[in-house]
Amino acid sequence: MKQAKIRKILQDLLEIKEPITECDDLTKMGLDSMTTIRLIVALEQAFDLEFSEEDLLLDNFRTVEKISGLINVRQSEKLVYTEKSEC
């Protein structure tokens, strides 16, 4: 489900119709620094999270697999923070 959502966002941003696999190098499909900024904003909105400054490297957004892993980390951290702040 998460990867399908990521793929849809990427297809819209990169304006491509062909399927994107989890290991496709997105830089070879048109992902550049400007598109990465738009991707980051779209992902933060779609998954209700914020990436840290350390996350903002093009290599972290090179494949769907890397993006999905990064989102998992940020969502886990958000969950832990939310649980702690409610006490």
TrEMBL record:
Pfam families cross-referenced by the UniProt entry: PP-binding
SUPFAM superfamilies according to UniProt: ACP-like
Gene3D superfamilies in the record: ACP-like (1.10.1200.10)
Keyword match DNA repair: no
Keywords for the protein's UniProt record, in alphabetical order: Phosphopantetheine, Phosphoprotein
Carrier domain span: 1-75
InterPro entries given in the database record: ACP-like_sf, PP-bd_ACP, Ppantetheine_attach_site
Protein name per UniProt: Acyl carrier protein
